[in-house]
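In practice, a research group might receive sequence data for several interacting partners and want a quick structural hypothesis before committing to experiments. The following worked case mirrors that situation: the sequences arrive first, and a predicted assembly follows.
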Amino acid sequence: MKFLSRQEELLLLSILKLKENAYGVTIREHVSEVTQKYWSIGAIYDVLDRLTKKGLVQTIIGAPTKSRGGKSKRYYRLTQSGFDALQEVRDLQKKTWADLPKTVLEEK
Amino acid sequence: MAAGNGDSDYALGDLWETFEHIAATEGTVKARLWFWAEVLRSLPGFVRNFFRWRTDMFINSMKLMLRNLRRQKGYSLINIAGLSLGIAVFILIMSYVANELSYNSFHTRLDRIYQIGTAENNGTPVPMADFLKQTFPEIEQAVRFRNNFHSQLFRYEGGFFKIEESYFVDPEAFDVFTFPLIRGHAETALKDPFSLVLSETEAQRIFGNADPIGKIVNYDNQKDFTVTAVIQDPPRNSSISFGALFSIEALDDVTDEDVSWGHWNCQTYLLLTKGHDPGAVEEKIRLFMHSIYTDRWGMTEDRISENYVFSLRPMKDLYFDAFRGGRYKHGSLQNVYIFTLVALIVLVIACINFVNLTTARASVRAKEVGVRKVLGSRRSLLIKQFLGESMLLNVIATGIACLLVLLFRPLFYDLIGKELELGLFSSPVHGLFLLAFALGLGLVSGFYPAFVLTAFRPADSLSGKTSRGVRGTAFRKTLTVFQFAMSIVLIIGMITVMRQLHFINDKDLGFDKDYLVWFEESSSIRDKADVFRQKLEAYPGVEKLSISRFTRPGITGTWDLRTEQTTVKCTVFLTDADFVETMGLNLVEGRDFSRTMASEAGQALILNQTAARAFGLDSPIGKTLSVGNSYTIVGVLEDYHFQSLHHEIEPLALVYDPPSCNIANIRISPHDIDHTLAYIGNVWEELSPDHPFEYRFFDESYDRLYRAEENFQALFVYFSLIAVFVACLGLLGLASYMARQRTKEVGIRKVMGATVANIMVRLSKDFARVVLYANILAWPAAWIAMNLWLRNFAFRITMNLWVLLLAGSGALLIALATVGYQAFRAASADPVDALRNE
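A structural hypothesis for the assembly, expressed as tokens:
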């Protein structure tokens, strides 16, 4: 199977951590905070759309609120395959990092 | 915000929320800046998506369109064939029109160049140019062009070369006109009296690849000329075309012509200074010339007729001015208009086909439209889709049209009698223009069908209610009426043009133009005129021989002949005593010239009836006329058409002046023409071995005066036929569509006992009615238009009702023949097949 990209992994983890409150704004804040980089809304949605298309996340439409100019929020939640994909990445990482001597990285 | 596809709402919400947040914490200015930064960041994605969806939909539409085309091969063929033909005709004609309008446009100083001339003449006195240039500061340059009627013969190293067109010109000609030099220098090229400038083609022909500069060429066995420069061939869209230019200084030496004020043989061109006012200059020239007439020539006021009033004619109008054009190439602006109209008509007919066939097939596509609508497509999107299809189809048709144009271009050039300077595919700009044209045409012709096709309500179309395609039937019929009206106008035009030309060819001209050979005598023949005459007259094939001057068909000269009371501008032929008899003319009064009366030379003349009337002479015989010299009228000639039939019969004077004559007119017997010509050739060879013998038949030369009309006729006839053909293609499509629509009706009628004939009448009736209406529209239009056209001819046919009837019934027959086959097929089908499927 195809592995997740780093961005996809980042976003999936964010959604996972934000639990019930994962929607565009919060995800973007969270990701920007973790990575210490600027993420545009477009960049976030680009990845979110890809995740949705792959069936790794599912969306729930919220009620429209005034602070959003009358637009509703779209909440994201991981699907089972989303969980599986994350699991897989973690396993892979464990394996690939496992037999690496600690000193190799520290010397750099 | 367009980051997502179709879910932009949520992203927009996010944008809004974050905006508010930033506005609250860091101020609105920052929030605004952030907002626009976000928008900019999202642009690449937006554009990418836009195109991805566009291409997806476009490919989808294309697929559907091609499927539709393939499924209905007949319609598609008719549709595309009609369109391609129409477009091809349009492209061809418009390239011709563009070429006509482009004449002389290559001169860089075009807007400042003017030709001087009088109302009906572009000849000006030889010394005029110099006087004007010296007198008026507004005139930057004045140059003369003197057509070389003298001889076309050049000799180089023993080889003869004929250069058809050449001019004697002033050295400054290159300052006025844009004829770029390839070799030599413009300033010095024509300075020396015996210098010669050759066109690239002629230089190549005479010298091959050798360097022509400085080579000596003999002209007419008289003088040697030195080649000083080679110029690019004048473009095909130049009024003035030539193979060689002489220095005008040589005019005196080469020809025996007078170069004084009395000879109006030069065309004079002025280059006005920038910011000129041609009207003011013209006025000054008139005053100046007036003072010359009165002071220098001692003319009294009453004798200065309109023939002495000069005017300026812009060079850019020269091509469309028949009088001023003189011997130059000239075209007819009227023909340009007519052909533009024909091109548009053909195009419109093709477009109407397209509209009719597309809307007629609407029911076939109603289901597709229904499904698309049910699936959520908006009408605007569907309209775009159909417009897109129409544009694509037009682009395809234009592509095919371009191939047709390439294929038929040589034939077209044959028809119009010349090649076009403008290459159709010579530059990418033309390609872009064609593409834009195709897209525009697609838009125009696809507009109505797109609205009709998308108007179906899905519930109806899916349940098959609109399958009869009732919508637009009236509109389609109206369009077909127009289509046929235009076709009928063209057919009437075609018949009229053909009748008029036939009339011209058959009209009794008052003289016998058949079996008449003419040629120009060489100088050696002229020296041995008596021997030449004796030898020719001794041969039985030669019936009569006359030597004359100024009698070339199409090129004549005029004199102002005066009595005490009146001045009449007469065309003048210098002749010997045999001219009247050789040409087969009739004298109504007086006598012919007499060879035996020594006193007659340079003193006797014969008028035609028109001239006698113009002088107001009741008994003209014995009266004298003067133009410097005095002439006695010895005879009156019955009027004959010495000019083409564009002209009324004008005053003509035959002046007895055998020593000046240089054109031999030989009436030969109709038997054994070849031997007679060979004999004449041998005599020539014997007397004038240094000149090649070339002759022409008078009727051919005379008919050449109608070449413009013949080209016009050919173009008109062919393109009218194509227009009618395209209209019939459309009719065929409509008829076959109709036949299919009414299959069930026909089936039921047959079951009920209708005969094949009954049904055919029924099916054809509608179309017959369409053609009848078209006739009602077409007749008055054609009547008016053709009467206008006929006014070009002084001698013309009158419009007849039977032409209208013929054209109308012809159109009806063609239409019925087109429809009839379809009707017959529908009517003779087995009703079982028609009614089986429900």
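Before designing any experiment, note the following. Chain B touches chain A at residues 1, 3-5, 7, 9-18, 20-21, 37-38, 41-42, 45 (CB under 8 Å). Residues 83 and 350 of chain B are 5 Å apart (CA to CA).
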